[in-house]
Design a protein that fits this description.
The complex is a heterodimer of chains A (587) and B (293). The radius of gyration of chain A is 23 Å and the shape is globular. By secondary structure, chain A is an alpha/beta fold. Chain A is built from 23 helices and 13 strands. The C terminus of chain B is likely disordered. Chain B has two domains: 66 residues, Defensin A-like; 183 residues, Rossmann fold (3-Layer(aba) Sandwich). Chain B has a five-stranded parallel beta sheet, sandwiched between helices. In chain B, strands 1-3-2 form a three-stranded antiparallel beta sheet, covered by helices on one side. The termini of chain B are far apart. Chain B is α/β, with parallel strands linked by helices. Chain B has eight helices and eight strands; from the N terminus they run βαββαβαβαβαβαβαα.
Chain lengths: 587, 293
Amino acid sequence: MSRLNLDRDKIESCRQVGRHITLQIQDFIDRHTTVSIERATLRFFGLEDAIKSMPIVNLIVDRLPKEKLELGIARWFGRALVHHRASSPLSLALRIADGKINMEETPDVPYEKVDQALQPLVMAGLRRLDAARERKEKLLTQYDRSERPLKYLIVATGNIHDDVDQAKAAVEQGADCIAVIRSTAQSLIDYVPHGATTEGFGGTYATQENFKIMRKALDEVGKEVGRYIRLVNYSSGLCMAEIAVTGAFENLDFLLNDAMYGILFRDINMKRTFTDQYFSRLVIARAGITINTGEDNYLTTAESYRAFPQVLASQFINEQFGLQANLREEQMGLGHAFEMDPTIEDSFLYEIAQAEMVREIFWKSPVKYMPPTRHMTGDIFFGHVLGTMFNLIGVTTRQEIQLLGMPTEAIHNPFLQDRFISMKCANYMFNAARHLGDEIHWSPNGKVIRRARAMLEETHTLLKKVERLGLMNAIEQGTFANMVRFIEGGRGLDGVIKKDKTYYNPVWKALEKRLPTADEQELIALRAESPLAVGHSEESEAGQEEGIVRPHQGRSRRRPRSRRRFGGPRGGGSQGGGKPDVPTTGS
Amino acid sequence: MSQQPDLKRLKPYGDHFEDGGVQLSFTLPVPYSDEAKEAARLYAEKMGLDRVQVSSMEKMGEKFCFFVVYGFSKLTIDFEKVVVPKIEIPKLTHKEIEELAEKKLGRRVVVIGGTTGSDAHTVGIDAILSIKGLAGDKGLESYSSFEVHNLRAQVDNKVLVEKATQLKAEAILVSQLVTQQDQHLTNLKELLKLLKQAKSDALRIVGGPRMTHKIAKEIGFDAGFGAGTRPSEVASFIVHELMRRKHGSPKKGHHLSPSGEAPKDRLEGGSAGASSKKGRSLFGWIGGGRKDS
């Protein structure tokens, strides 16, 4: 039984509408590429160097006039690779970057030869992604002794070496996930900075070297404390696609990655963002990374009491975009937040209703719950009380990831001791109220259930409106977060390129092929033996793909309220109509 | 009769007058030990505290110790000498502001606003500008005396200045969240520079949760508003400041001080402080009465 007794048909309908909304956009995405995707493609080939701190992938892509990119950078680079018989892709790349080789003037060679030359590089890249995924799976099996919710803390000194010190201290205090917040406005830089960095504004630059340094540090401290520590960074902004590749190669666990965040909050052009998010998620899906979406941000610009349907609607949209990019629901850490005005009578009940319904609707998603920020005033004592209530709801409603709130929010970057106080509070609440959720049943027609019902209804109406308008037009009308963004406006539009009929990108093509992961294969085997197998017969009608992507049994922990609460997604599962879960685009 | 504080020698009130009781917490980057605790106590003594009590010492990882400390300060402050620059404007109702603007200005005032640079937090600017306003105090959009253009989040300084020039804005409102490393100050100063280049004489108003009038004046803005500011306060300021500029003499604005007192040395930082030396020496574009239209 659902604890909130939500209307299952309504939820299904939301998913279907979400799917229609995103398929319209997918049609646009499939016909376009971006400079970031082209650079990410080169990074996938292992081109990670920089000349005078400018990445060679930028130098190479910038060598071509934009209209030439219609064919794909791989075509031009591959042609040069064949023609010049370079000793290695890197030596060729360096020569292109400094202008010694002109890709445009290199004579064309047959497509087969180009593909033949590049396939080993594609395979090597895929092996790196697979290795990253397998590493995570292995370490999580060995070391994942963390209780849920996972405790997520942020460090942001600007200096990666200081970040390491603070991250280690945070882990020793109990953190399970460490996010290295990025330097202010890195999302607006159209290249990924290079090397270890010691200066940043309000955060530390995301660079491949910084990823490496922090990964190593977290592995070390994780061993000491006997827990696997998840490393978090941001695949967002103008270099969304590139950070996905870089982060995947450096064994990051979570990437903040949202289909609309950049549009709404960073004023990045929507065509750019939609296209970038697709490619980035293909990479993320293959590397076994979990995305964290940014719906919590909506509630910082709009009041939670009224705007919550926007959060839910966006989660349905993010989910469908994710499925189209081969992400499994277990890889989608959908975001929401405790941001309601604390002076509203029964605000705590409404917050519970919202947190619970997100948990129930996206029950396979490692949902990420974000702390109060909007109503933090600098009164650390009251702020600490708000944080405590937030933690109580987090554990009661079984959120998967809890970003710990800071009593000093709105004052400064947290002091070391602010994290400590916050952690102590979370440790206490999570332990003291560990099974509170199991004991609670909501009054069938009480405030909590009525609130949830109303929110679902409004979300459905909102999604229908977005479907009618089309997502891009809806954003133009300020449907989300009260932000108005224009289809032709924002940053990065000049980096969006319409693909030619003969566009060539062997990386993209390879990533679109959805392989069952080892995890899923194991589950297929498990399923055959499972006593629960009966419960799956109906969904198997939806086709093999459908069956493969529902590995809930592997997640025994924290999933006591199994699919039976909803009777499981019926028929075509999330999508309805018996359509396969994952579009086999590309092939 | 209950005891009154000695304003000449003001001290914190812990449990009774003049005990000087304070609480503080801090971290020392040393491992947990008796020596760490003693160091914390000695440090608090050096901060001017008597009878220091380290009420809590906790191990914070291997290399750090966290302390909660209570003590009784020896220091005092002369309250009567405390001066805070304030915007001296009368608190008027929506209707009073509208009437005043119609009578004295006789035109719709173009107001433009947004958050600038990388700042995406529109809560503040929306509270001031949007019809909804804050806590029942309706925003500037609801006034017939204002023509409001809310450019919302992350407006490029250049764009803001271009728009302001194009729309002939008489007041520019920027909302800025105070960030690390004084990023916000750099950004605000850049805006002022651009406005100067564009020869704009619009009122420059900045708001933000940690903004004060003092900080705003120091950077070179005409006014700064902090957390909890009501839209009507901003509206009243705009109307009065424009009236003052229209009629020249900076003094005129000042008998409007709500307290009714002569503003004394507060004038320096008050709205008449638009002619403050600091502002002038920094950017040179501020000057009471310079603008007459």
